[in-house]
Specification:
The protein has seven helices and 14 strands. The chain is an alpha+beta fold. It has three domains: 56 residues, RNA-binding S4 domain (Structural Genomics Hypothetical 15.5 Kd Protein In mrcA-pckA Intergenic Region, Chain A, Roll); 79 residues, 2-Layer Sandwich (Pseudouridine synthase); 146 residues, Pseudouridine synthase (2-Layer Sandwich), CATH 3.30.2350.10.
């Protein structure tokens, strides 16, 4: 079992980012510190904190001791669905169950390994080159990957100012009372279970907009847009409102069966080099279409009628 270590933030590190301070105090690389924080294996004692949060002198940082890991993403000949590509970037249609980039727990078989086989060289961190935003392992759909340094910087800037429109479809348990709305609840590490995210008063602001596209008795099809992009944001926000994603292995009461029915269905952004507006759509995966058909049969709604609505761009 991994030993738990901790250290007090000295005055010289006051004001540094949490991931930077953790790397300095624990001896791991900054990218490994970010992974430890993301996976709940490191934390700031007594206060939730994301990698970008600033630390103060006297803060106590704790982490689980791990063997030194010197990972670098390597090319692998793996299946890769590309929704768009040019010389500066590509958009991948990720399958559910595939991890985005290598880590100590997943050193291979990731989206990044597949992209490196296709592109060979990309900018950014050696563990996650080209990655400007992530999707959870059990979420399918569209994600951006930069191939050039100019695209990497430009896409990161767009993500930071919320200029990339990310639209998701989810089949959830329960029904919202309103046909549309906004969930504005702060998120941070669950103080009782570090690997999970929870709504916490001291957390970072997180905003999710939703629209009810169809109601099926005890389930609903929601279309969602992220205003912020916190870890597990949609899944935790929906659970907090009482509408967990069907099949969510962490936050849903029904953790088996159809799998996590959350899909990044559309992405829209301005090309960071040419300035051209790009909007892309990813068809629903088969598991979501099967569940939609099952719900339509149960609710006596023509499946073709509902399926035709999936590809509509508007919420």
């Amino acid at each position: 079992m991994a030993r738990e270590l901790n250290a007090e933030v000295p005055e010289v590190l006051a004001g540094e980012r949490l991931d930077v301070a953790l790397a300095r105090l624990s001896g791991v690389s900054r990218s490994q510190a970010q992974i430890l924080l993301r996976d709940g294996h490191a934390w700031r004692v007594g206060r939730p904190g994301d990698a970008a949060d600033r630390v103060a002198a006297g803060d106590i940082l704790a982490w689980k001791e791990i063997a030194p890991v010197h990972l670098r993403a390597q090319p692998e000949d793996l299946p890769l669905e590309i929704a768009y590509e040019d010389e500066d970037l590509l958009v991948v249609d990720k399958r559910r169950g595939v991890v985005v980039h290598p880590s100590a727990g997943h050193p291979s078989g990731t989206v990044v390994n597949a992209v490196l086989h296709h592109v060979r060289s990309m900018p950014g961190d050696p563990l996650r080159p080209g990655v400007v935003h992530r999707l959870d392992r059990d979420t399918s759909g569209l994600m951006l990957v930069a191939k050039s340094e100019a695209a990497f910087r430009g896409l990161q800037a767009q993500i930071a100012r919320h200029a990339v429109v990310r639209t998701y479809d989810a089949i959830v348990q329960g029904q919202p009372r309103e046909d549309s709305g906004t969930i504005d609840l702060p998120l941070g590490r669950d103080p009782r279970e570090r690997k999970r995210i929870a709504v916490v008063p001291q957390g970072r602001r997180a905003v999710t907009h939703y629209w009810v596209r169809r109601r099926f008795g005890r389930a609903s099809w929601l279309r969602l847009q992220l205003e912020t992009g916190r870890t597990h944001q949609i899944r935790v926000h929906l659970r907090a409102r009482g509408w967990p994603v069907v099949g969510d292995p962490v936050y849903g009461p029904d953790r088996g069966g159809a799998g996590q029915l959350l899909h990044a269905v559309r992405i829209a952004f301005r090309h960071p080099v040419t300035g051209v507006e790009i909007s892309l759509f990813a068809p629903w995966p088969d598991d979501m279409r099967r569940e939609l058909m099952r719900l339509c049969v149960g609710a006596k709604i023509p499946f073709e009628e509902v399926a035709s609505e999936v590809e509509r761009a508007d919420p």
